[in-house]
Amino acid sequence: MDDWKEITKGGVTVKVKGKPVIIKRKETVPRVWAVNKVSGELVGEKDPQNRPSMLERLKRGGVGRRHDDHLKTVGRLDIPTEGLILVTNDGNFARDLELPSNKIHRVYRARIFGSLRRNQLMRIRNGFSGFQPMKVEVERRHKATRESSNTWIKITATEGQNRQIRKVFQSLGMSVTRLIRISYGDYQLHSIPPGLAIPVPWKPVANQKRKGSLFKKKIKHHEAKNQETASVKWTRGFQSS
C-alpha cells in the first residue's frame, strides 16, 4: 500500500501515490479579552453553590463562541472585588502572567476603613506575614470620626495570593470596604463598562513593560516614557467576541 501517514511537528504528513503532502494542524490563535468584573460575581464556573459566574455569563454572551475557544481566566478576583480580569484561550499565556517569578504588576484602588499610619505603610512596603512587598500610595482621605477614617489608596503587587490585600490590612486592624483592580501588566481597565468584555491584543510577557521590581532606585527618562506608553489598546469598540 503506497498511501501512509505520520505525525510531524507541523502537522500530518500523508503520502498520496508516493508523493508526500503535509496537512497542517489547526493552530489556536491567542485571543485575549479585558473584562470589568462586577462585585458579587464568582470568577470561575460550575459553582456547587450556584452563585453568579462571570465566566459562564461571558460565554452565554458569546465570548469565544465564534472560534470555539476554551476560556481561561488569568488569576482570580474574589466575589466582592471589582475591576480588570483577563480572559484568554491561551493556557500558556495565562500561566506566564500568573507566575510570581515574572513579577507582573497588578494595580488596585482600595478604600480602607481604619486609621492608616505611616509605620503601617512602611510595613506593607517592606513585606510581612508571608506577603511580598507592595507599593502603596495614599490618594485621599475622608475623615469619618476622630478615631477612624476612610482612605483611598493605590496598591501595586507582583503576586496574586488569595485575598492578599484584604488579609494584609486586616492584620493591621483595618478593613477593605471596596477593592478595584485597575491594571494587570500592560493591560488597563480604562473606561470598560461594568460587566463588559473587550477584545485586546495578545502581548507576551517578554514584551510587557509593567513587570519586575517595584522599588527601583532610579528610572531613566526613556524607561519612564516606555512605562507610560505600555498600555495595551483595545482592538475594537464595545463588542463581546
Describe it.
By secondary structure, the chain is of the alpha+beta class. The protein folds into 3 domains: 1-27, no CATH class; 31-105 and 185-241, Alpha-Beta Plaits; 113-175, no CATH class. 17% of the residues lie in helices and 31% in strands. It contains 5 helices and 12 strands. The chain has helices spanning 54-60, 91-98, 118-126, 164-171, 221-228; strands spanning 4-8, 11-16, 19-24, 32-37, 72-73, 82-88, 106-113, 135-143, 149-157, 175-184, 187-188, 197-200. The strands form 2 sheets. Strands 4, 5, 6, 7, 8, 9, 10, 11 and 12 form a 9-stranded mixed β-sheet that branches. A 3-stranded antiparallel β-sheet has the order 1-2-3, with no helix packed on it. Strand 10 and strand 11 form a beta hairpin. The N and C termini lie far apart (47 Å).
Q: Compute the separation of the termini in Å.
A: 47 Å
- Helical percentage: 10-25%
Beta-strand share of residues: 25-35%
Top CATH class of the largest domain: Alpha Beta
- Element-by-element helix/strand order: EEEEHEEHEHEEHEEEH
Instruction: Tell me the total number of β-strands.
Output: 12
| Shape verdict | elongated
Nearest-angstrom radius of gyration? Answer: 22 Å
Report the uncertain regions. Answer: 1-5, 237-241
Please summarize the sheet with the most strands: 9 strands, mixed
CATH level-two architecture of the largest domain: 2-Layer Sandwich
- SS field, number of helical segments: 5
Name the structural class.
Answer: alpha+beta
Domain tally:
3
